[in-house]
Fold these 2 entries.
Entry 1:
Amino acid sequence: MSAGKTKDAKDPKDPKGTRDAKGQKDAKGGGGDARAPKEARQPAPPKEAKQPRPEGKEPPAPKEQKERKPERPAPVPRLQILYREAVVKQLMEQFGYKSAMQVPRIEKIVLNMGVGEAVADKKIMDNAVSDMTKIAGQKPLVTKSRKSIATYKIRSGYPIGCKVTLRGRRMYEFLDRLVNIAMPRIRDFRGISARAFDGQGNYNMGVKEQIIFPEIEYDKIDAIRGMNITIATTAKSDNEAKALLSGFPSRSEIKSP
């Protein structure tokens, strides 16, 4: 090493480069400071103020146009009007009720269809559900087996039937169609039994063919199926329930609203 080497100078192998006497680091491309003086620098443009984000989530995207609602509400079923105007007064005079709230009324109608053939083919259950949907006006519930029975090749949890519960307006509309349209279409119809009450004011009846309902098209069904219809009332005895159901006249005696 030469004697003229100063203390400030560093080994040329140093990757950091050399520093001048003032301790400033030289630029790699050449001597002098590569930065321009502060006076010659142009002022940076002012930054745009950030807009505060609205609280909560972003506004949802516009949804598709909803279905058009009917201009008028659905009319009240005529059997419901008949019950309020005529049947209530008739039962109050017959049984001596002090208040209209004591008069029995129809609480619900339950349709139940057993489809044991669906164990072998699931399409049979789909067809049964489709038929009951057309009859009742709402989608039924598929019922499943609770126990495994080897004789019938049924395991626990297999779909073996479907049922639907009707209340309110749909209940009265179905009762009107059942009594005035479906029952007269039963083959060799001679009336219904008066002994089909269960002792608690409920009435049960069976239908052997679903084609008695006008909603079912005979050419589009795969098989003839029957169903059980239960009319549940709030009556405490069979006599009160019989008087309640007898108070609804036939179609010829009802005046449309």
Entry 2:
Amino acid sequence: MPVPLTVETVRDAPKVLLHDHLDGGLRPASVVELADAIGYSGLPSRDPDELAKWFLGAAHSGSLVRYLETFGHTVAVMQTADALVRVAAECAEDLAADGVVYAEVRFAPELHVEGGLGLDAVVEAVLEGFRQGSAVAAAAGRRIRVGCLLTAMRHAARSREIAELAVRYRDVGVVGFDIAGAEKGFPPTRHLDAFEYVRQQNAHVTIHAGEAFGLPSIWEAIQWCGAHRLGHGVRIMDDITLDEHGEPRLGRLAAYVRDTRIPLEMCPTSNVHTGAASSIVDHPIGLLARLGFRVTVNTDNRLMSGCSTTSELLTLAQAFDYGWDDLRWFTINAMKSAFCHFDYRLDLINDVIKPGYAALKA
């Protein structure tokens, strides 16, 4: 008989995470301690439990702009090398404890220079933290590999600089380049120079697109900026209609995304919180998975949305009656779409993911 899907069993299953923000996944207690260390007095509460509730409540606003405002507190306490090392190390430990065997965690170096750090020092501190956290996890019997995605802010003008930074550190832990921030009014083509540089350097690109803005954002991300993956991409639903029999019909952009296997980094709980989806049961992931899009399941911001990779998968299983085969499919989709080398992806799929799910189905 298959092992039942519970919090414990799903946590033990090997999982892959492609869309997780470093500054959106801090431990509440660490936020308080880091704030005390630098004399930051802006926290809405110094009690870790109350602070966690505040982040969740503030983020669950139905507005991406309001959701992003909560990051002011986490970014404020991540302005020293020691703080960045600690946060990154705890991130790796927490993901490993949740059964994640491979993760790509993103952050914007330009947001962490207010304390005097240079961009290179910021990246090096985060990479050191991932190394330390992965070592601690391995010693506890939970192996994880963490790759780093460098994000440029779409409303700023440092994207070319961040793109060059991503290429400079690509052999020591940085696996790709991204842009993030409010979509409306800040199309990805504003950063075309950065994307062209990354592509010319044979590096990887993922772009936040189709979260709070529609098809033009997705189209530009793919056809102008060369995105290898789409961060969120839920608004691809705008290009899918139902005919008179209730059967879905794909427009040209949606068909292109599906036909070329462009991965969608979907973050269900976060999408509900920002208003990109009305509820989990109404989330586009259900139809997109049924139609065979390259769908992956992600956390986005574990602190703000009060979630984990385990909780996201379990929530989807309950909403759409998914079983182990479906969770395995999501996981293999993600590993196929990772920005690490092909041989490592193949080894992890064949040696870790498939045997892990086979044991749960036995």
